[in-house]
Model the fold of this input.
Amino acid sequence: GRLSGLYVDNGLDQTVIHRVVTQRERQEVEHEILNLLGLPDRPRGLGGHPPQVKRSAPKFLLDIYRNTLGEGEDQDLSSTVKPEGDRGHFDLSGQDLRAIDQSDVIMSFAAHNHHVAGVRHERGKRLWFDVSEVPPGESIIGAELRLYQSPDLKNKKKQGSYVVTAYRVLRTEDGERELQYVDAMNTSTGREGWLTLNVSEPLQHWVNDPEANRGLYLSVHPADRSVHEMRPEDVGIVGSRGDVDKQPFMVAFFKSSGIREAR
Amino acid sequence: VRRKRDARRRKKSDTSSVDYRSNPYTDPSIQSNARTCKIQTLYVNFRDLKWQDWIIAPDGYDAYYCSGECNFPLNAHMNATNHAIVQTLVHLVTPGKVPKPCCAPTKLSAISVLYFLDDNNVILKKYKNMVVKSCGCH
Done:
């Protein structure tokens, strides 16, 4: 009745009588393969429903999978990657391709509305990522924060050039909030596409010290007047309540240590 | 004179222990019966295993496996190691003591699997040495 999922051409001698495994033995074999893949249990939160790959984070990795991996895994990416304009929803830079090429594990993290006591929201946005599932023994090659900028603006008066800056939220000894500069990039209204900020350093801190994970603070200023802070939405940056395929997310690239866990 | 005499004795003794029935040159049935070591098809279907709940891609993959006999003479198609050739010869001399070399992968490649860690986070992981590219006698 049930399909096993393993199909062989029965290359063995036909005259030899093979024992048919029991249902229990079959389940044990399946479990052993899942263990090898590092998937011993069904992931939490799926509730038995097939996963939806509509959100930006899974969509990004599916894009990488379809465009750069799959057939001929040992090939050099630079020879297999599709021409520019045919790379799906996400534009991958040369730096991205190098990171993908070097990585054994690539993880995406959706932004959460995670409350942290003592962190006051100003005009900027706070983004928090659950990095507790980062596999132990993996070294971080790099991590980037991806933000989608839409050309549609509610307030047409706010046209111009802007600086988008990411800060790591710290807690000082006296309990005051402190922001540590992480990365920044220039943009202008009317631009459409993904903005990428290097967040390798904060990820390294959060993995080493999960208690210190208070997320990132995203700040937008006009390029000419750095004092006046604006809301990211004002320049078209899509937030956590925007379209699911344009929500902010973080992606991290890891290299395996090569040490296998005993099973 | 003594060395030559001992060598003659050794040669006589070694020759007498060879089982001509297991020699492929004297027993053609060995060659015709055995299936030679080669790559065989094995497809692992994640969808039929009902793992598509969390494995996004691929639906499955061609894993392949190696099967067949490593018989003397080992030809070039088997990618036999030098040691495998020696082991085959020793097996012919003492079949009860030394087994034939094993038919095993000589080259393996990786696959990438994309799966959900939970309902938000997704992982794309490269698994090395998952696909058999070629087989040989070891």
About this structure: Chain B touches chain A through 46 residues (CB under 8 Å). The mean pLDDT of chain B is 80. The helical segments of chain B are 2-17, 29-33, 82-93.
